[in-house]
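Subject: sequence -> structure tokens, single chain

Hey, anyone have a minute? Need the predicted structure for the following. Not urgent.
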Amino acid sequence: MEKVHSTQVIGIASGKGGVGKTTVSANLAVSLASMGKRVMVFDADLGLANAQLALGCRAKYNFSHVLSGEKTLQEIIIDGPMGVQLVPGSSGIQHMASLSIAETAGIIQSFEEIEDTLDYLIVDLAAGLSDTVMTFISACQHRFIIVKDDPSSIADAYASIKVMIQDYQLDNISIITNCMASQRAGDRLYQGVDSVIQRFLGAQVGHLGTIREDEMVLRSIKASKPLLKFSPSSAAARDFEKLAKAVTTLTTKTSISGGLQFFLERLTRQDTTNN
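Reply:
Had a minute. Here:
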């Protein structure tokens, strides 16, 4: 009997930098792993590539070495806390949009080798609306936008969602409100953003949850440790656990088998990125 398994591919983005996107990516990954899920983080944040710092890992090689043929995917993967695996990123990922057929086939095959070992692939994207970011976010099955209660964060998040919906016809978009004074404040921020989206875009986005402002988050970042390892009883750590539970309830409108293959094929074929 054929084994049916679908890796859920999650893209985490933000309209602007400095809203805690990588912190959310890393801590969500650790929270899912603590629930027994098999999780990998793909650091696609070009230039910064700082997911390894958030997870407390050190990477000797990165994805550019896979693209160049120097290393296989398996050779660059590093193990993080709670069993989370990390594919370190680099500026070499910019080459993804112009891969040859042979390069594309090789990379897809390398990801297929780990398909059955993963429940979630979390893609930590760069801030903004570059072509590369939109290529990545289009290839994901779920799209999470991090928003803070800051005018520029709200405006840029709305702009990102507008492009996703109007220019790329994407769905499965959810907001995560971050660094909030309370859960209620997070709900209010989401409702404000969603009402504008409904009014001007004729669409709706979900609210996955709120991460409260917590000094332990900053301390964990300085210590290069995920919050659930640094201060597991903190308010924000509990919020990440709640967020992870919400993520496990998500479904896609269409059942996509071979989640990683779908992701890589979308990522490496320019003619499908706008579908």
